[in-house]
Amino acid sequence: MKVGFLGPEASFTHNATKTAFPDDELVSYHSIPACIKGVEFGEVELGVVPIENTIEGSVNTTVDYLFHQTTIPVGAEIVLPIYQQLMVSKNNRDTWLETTKILSHPQALAQSQEFIRRYFPMAELESTPSTAYAASFVASHPEQKIAAIAPKLSAETYELEIVGRDIQDVAINQTRFWVLGAEKIDLPIKSADHKLTIALTMPNNMPGALHKALSVFSWRDIDLSKIESRPLKTTLGEYFFLIDINVQKPQKLLDNALEEIRLMGGTVKIFGNYKIHPINGV
């Protein structure tokens, strides 16, 4: 089976994907939309993309594309602990404090702000498509005083020197990844919980619309683990709500809650009803 992932190799997404699919053919994509389109167009059977990080919150590119552009289901979730490393070419390992530019994915840069402010307050920060891309670029330009923030695997893959270990601002830093392409996906990782994710919109100008929508879950004692708003990209001030539901009640009760929202004039898009698979010790 072919499984797409946000690449290149040695990125956090690659690490999560190869742990979940150790015996399958992995295909790297340069962006989240490209990976999702790979599933849509049948280039790969499944795709793995990041959806949320402990520090930086939701990956809006993933959320918006899945809401606006496709109906591909979420079949599983992988949770990966994130440890950010600062790495330089071996030529610069003794002069790493002279680094003038730090490259990484925007999420990784945001997750390492305290370290950057302490050691490199004047350094230029440059966003790259992925952490592994940043590591690859640094390896290809050993003559430059540049560094990358990336996972340990990137340093091993691109033969870089780690000069700052576990530099993320929060010690317990995790990223959620969604596996797309099928309604149910079995992974060789023990599952911990079960979740239902939906996108909800309510009629314009309905007084207390969000309160009414949430009440259908409240009086049924349905536990919501997350709710956030995203622009509908139609008119300023119009939003859809992304809601994660802990699946602890009978499916019929959940179905009745969603039907009640529809009867009030709301719309419900189900992203997936899936198991959560935490990865430990990676």
Describe this structure in words.
- The chain has 282 residues and is α/β, with parallel strands linked by helices.
- The protein folds into 3 domains: 2-81 and 173-180, Periplasmic binding protein-like II (D-Maltodextrin-Binding Protein, domain 2, 3-Layer(aba) Sandwich), CATH 3.40.190; 85-164, 3-Layer(aba) Sandwich (D-Maltodextrin-Binding Protein, domain 2), CATH 3.40.190.10; 193-274, Alpha-Beta Plaits, CATH 3.30.70.
- It is 28% helix and 33% strand.
- It has helices at 12-20, 32-40, 60-68, 106-111, 113-119, 131-140, 152-158, 209-218, 251-263, and strands spanning 2-6, 25-29, 46-53, 57-58, 74-81, 85-88, 101-104, 124-127, 146-150, 161-164, 174-180, 193-201, 224-231, 239-246, 267-278.
- The strands form 2 sheets. Strands 1, 2, 3, 4, 5, 11, 12, 13, 14 and 15 form a 10-stranded mixed β-sheet that branches. Strands 8-7-9-6-10 form a 5-stranded mixed β-sheet.
- Helix 1 (12-20) links the parallel strand 1 (2-6) and strand 2 (25-29).
- Helix 8 (209-218) runs antiparallel to helix 9 (251-263).
- The protein is elongated, with a radius of gyration of 21 Å.
- Pfam families: PDT.
- This is Prephenate dehydratase.
- It catalyses: prephenate + H(+) = 3-phenylpyruvate + CO2 + H2O.
Task: Using the CA coordinates, give the radius of gyration.
Answer: 21 Å
Distance between the termini: 23 Å
SS-based structural class? alpha/beta
Q: What portion of residues belong to β-strands?
A: 25-35%
CATH architecture of the largest domain: 3-Layer(aba) Sandwich
Order of helices and strands: EHEHEEHEEEHHEHEHEEEHEEHE
The helicity comes to 25-40%
Biggest sheet architecture: 10 strands, mixed
